[in-house]
Amino acid sequence: MTPTISIAISSPYVTVDEFARVSGMNPRTVKKYISEGKLPIRKKKITGKYDRSTTLINMTALTLEGAKAFNPELKLDEDKS
Question: What does the alpha-carbon distance between residue 21 and residue 23 come to, in Å, rounded to a whole number?
Fold first, then answer.
């Protein structure tokens, strides 16, 4: 029998400021990590010449990455649709 693990994520996406607060990082460092591709973000929809949408960090992706790092044999059923 395969064990079942349940993980609750309070919010699938958080702002840069919220991520900085919960991680203890400086918001400038968080923005740097985003620009370097070190943090997964929600893709923005460009709506005009200047994009003023809020950058959101994908907490679900980070949680799955952490679970996989904890147990490399973990098999994740991810819906790619």
Answer: 6
Q: Is 7 helix (H, G, I), strand (E, B) or coil?
A: coil
Q: Beta-strand (E) ranges in the chain?
A: 13-15, 56-58
Instruction: Express each pLDDT in 22-81 by its tens digit.
Output: 999 999 999 999 999 999 999 766 666 776 678 999 999 999 888 888 877 777 665 554
Q: If pLDDT is split at 50, 70 and 90, which confidence band does 2 have?
A: low
Domain tally, the chain: 1
Residue 4 located in a structural domain: no
> Do 66 and 12 touch, CB atoms closer than 8 A?
no
CATH of the domain at 63: 1.10.10
58 sits in which H/E element: strand 56-58
